[in-house]
Amino acid sequence: MPERTMLREFKKRFEVDRLCIRSSHAQLVLKTIFNRAEDAAIPLAVSRYPVNSQPLMDFFGVSPTAMRIRLLELSLVY
Fold first, then answer.
1. Angle 37-46/64-73 helices, nearest 10 degrees?
2. How many angstroms separate the CA atoms of 78 and 12, rounded?
3. In whole angstroms, how far apart are CA 26 and each of 2, 5, 23?
4. Which terminal residue of the chain has fewer beta carbons within 10 Å of its beta carbon, N or C?
5. 52 falls in which pLDDT band (50, 70, 90)?
6. What does the alpha-carbon distance between residue 59 and residue 37 come to, in Å, rounded to a whole number?
7. H or E element, residue 25
8. CA gap 50, 76 in Å, rounded
9. Where are the chain's structural domains?
10. Sequence-ordered list of residues with C-beta below 8 angstroms from that of 65, at least 6 positions apart, any chain
11. pTM (2 d.p.)
12. Is the pLDDT reported for residue 51 higher than 90?
């Protein structure tokens, strides 16, 4: 999962460069409140936000766990 492509696809789906789990936008995307980025990463990996979009894990053809790791490596969720 190349970094530039990850950054582009993340921003395209979630409309932010990085997602703070305590933000109102994160609550809208995740539909729940998380206390740790590690816990929010898998829901982001499988999210269809916006509704008609393809989940990041499907776009890259990886498992939710692999996408979780990459989201955290790139600090896209914090």
1. 130
2. 18
3. 24, 21, 5
4. C
5. confident
6. 21
7. helix 24-30
8. 17
9. 3-73
10. 42
11. 0.91
12. no
Q: Tokens at residue 25, please?
A: 């936008």
Write the pLDDT tens digit of every residue in 53-73.
Answer: 899 999 999 999 999 999 999
CA distance linking residue 73 with residue 27, whole number of Å? 22
Q: Is the dihedral of CA 27, 59, 71, 74 positive or negative?
A: negative
Contact 39, 33 (CB under 8 A): no
CA atoms within 13 A on the CB side of 11: 8
Which whole-number Å values give the CA distances from 22 to 34, 58, 77, in the listed order?
A: 7, 26, 10
**45 phi and psi angles, rounded to 5 deg:** -65, -35
